[in-house]
Amino acid sequence: MKLSFMAPVITFAGIAGVMFYALFYLDPKEIPSELLDKKSPVFALEAVPGYGENLSSENLKEGKITLLNVFASWCVACLAEHPTLMELSRQGKIDIYGLNYKDTPDAAAKWLRRNGSPYARTGMDLKGRVGIDFGVYGVPETFIMGPDGTILDKIIGPITEKDLKNRILPRIDGGEG
Amino acid sequence: MIGEIGHFGLILALVVAVLQGTLPMIGASKGNVALMRFASSAALVQFLAVSISFIALTIAYVGSDFSIVNVAQNSHSLKPMLYKISGVWGNHEGSLLLWAWILALFGFAVAAFGRNLPDGLKARVLSVQGMIGIGFLLFILFTSNPFERIDPAPFDGRGLNPLLQDPGLAFHPPFLYLGYVGLSITFSFAIAALIEGKVDPAWARWVRPWTLAAWGFLTLGIALGSWWAYYELGWGGWWFWDPVENASFMPWLVSTALLHSAIVVEKRDALKNWTILLAIIAFSLSLLGTFLVRSGVLNSVHAFASDPARGVFILGFLVLVIGGSLILYAVRAPTMKGGGLFAPISREGALILNNLLLSTAAATVLLGTLYPLFLDALSGAKVSVGPPYFNATFLPLIIPLIIALAFGPFLAWKRADLKGVFSRLKLAIVSVCVIVGVSWWVTDDGPILAFVGMGLFAWLVTAVFVELADRIKLFRTSLRQSLKRFLNLPRSAYGMSIAHLGVAMVILGVTASEAWQSERLDVMQPGETVVVGGYDFQFEGAERLEGPNYGILRGSFNVKRNGSLVADLRPEQRVYESPPMETTEAAIWPMLSADLYVVIGEEDGKGGYATRIYHKPFISWIWIGAIVMFIGGGFSLSDRRFRIGAASARKKQTQKTAEAAGA
Q1: What is this structure's pTM?
Q2: A96, B65, B193, B310 - which has most CB atoms within 10 Å?
């Protein structure tokens, strides 16, 4: 049997294997970021035109806990967490910085105009370089940054009610107290 | 009562499908004609049984029989009749029933129209259809029964998602399913050929029309879906690389490839293994799409896990059908003998290039679609793989495809003269320069890709017409002669030219609307005017009204150009009560040169309304192009060689003229 004729079935076996795994061993455990408890990578990015000031790694170590939220105008799941972020920013307890991932300035500005901006600062990561440094898998992701710029925690995917209650709010209240 | 009849129909269909899936196959291997012929009767009975079931569910919907869970969950007594009917397939259970029904319909069609098929091939094809039917019917009966009862019956239903209460969407799934299921026929032919170990041009002549039909329906189904997204979602976007869209786009890409490779099998007796593999993959992707989307796996792995019975069944079925057929392919395909030899620069070579690019494109879409699923499954991470990925991987494959597309029809079979083709395409190069120059001059700005797109459009259109002119010897013989030649062209030749023109139109629409759209977001007071894309939009005010099962906020816009009235646009925002939800009804003024697109939003409390106004140049051409492609497919489908039996003298003659014409 020639290998070339086997290739399709082998490929499919791989796909089926992962789906099988997904089905039976689905335990939504999150892979911690390699960078957890390490300092933020160094970067400096320009803001989305008209939306907050520029964003750099210096802004992440100004002595308070901050959220670094990775978002993009093409990301559907970002819309799911957007109201949560807007509410959080309205309460004013924590500064939220937006890392605009692999987007265009135009599209990002339009998106923020349409949906509102929860961000105190924004930074355009047009090529996704900074995202790579942060170990971003995809959008959205949210990093909880310590007062000295260490990565305390990372939420993959849209921020849920549970994430907010168990992972974000305790940090804010703990940080203040 | 009606529910029980429907349920009974499904059980009957399952019993018949089991017989249809086994007996004819045994008959074909033993040479038992009676068992082989049983396949056709079984296909008819199966069709009748599933029809009973489908009609029963439709009656339950039309009569708002809320003692049936499915109706109670998805319908509502106040719903307009059209949506009561489309509600039948607007949900998981009903859509599967529609699938099974179309499957049975097509099986019946093969039985009825395939009179000149050899007994053995026909028996095996119908048998494979029967096996697919078994899988679907089992799945419906055991995990997704649409006829389940509820006691006590609720007073009223929960209603259909208002976004789905729309004529565009009401007819979108049936077309898609006609496409998906049409590919099941080519799949069955491929499996039958592998079992028989024989693929000949007669086989390809059977496979090609089914592929064409399936492809045409898919084209139309996808176009309807994107048109719906365009006017209903209120963003003015028409394609989002959403998993649901990709699920229909991948089979389309592969069936486009299949459609072309089947020509090579038919004309040159080559590329057999590849064509069979494509037929298997095309249907596998249809299945994958149907199940992944319907079970909600792609959007959320948790939905998959929440009903383990469904998930296990889906996976088992996919492994059995796709895995089984690919193993059969691995075992049997190496024994098939390829036919005609050819040089790299030839019609065959061009079609292979077409196939490589299209299937690579399908693979990249598959990768992008499944990646979030895999990541979600393995790490619990939810991510979007967005347009950046798809644009970055898809465009580099499509651009060379379009460039090559222009060459293909000029190349001769076996060995072609590339230099000669270039010299005939001089005119196309000139027109590319002209169009790119003109669009530069008119717009005076735009991304590079926009000019590439305009260039591709010009290139393809000119090439299609040059090829046509070549074929009818325009200006090289008398006009009368040329006209005569034109009228005598085989329909498949018209089909090809028309479909390729359709592709060019889509390119024009996509390029121009993406690159040169103008957009304004404002809070407008009644009486205020804004200018977008050279048109004056005057906001006259908004009023609140009552619709049949929703409340309406309707804005009124007066659109003028150079002082003369162009259109009166009335965008709406609708508020539904069951289920509670808001939808945006954009007001669109479609023109050939551009669409004017107006959306109205919330009042700001000071008498102003949030408005979004777009000017989208040439966007209608996306859907016009899709329809033109569909028409091209129809022409090709009506070609004489598909209508006339395999061994008639006239067919040979047709083929000769076709070959002489280079079809």
Answers
A1: 0.81
A2: B193
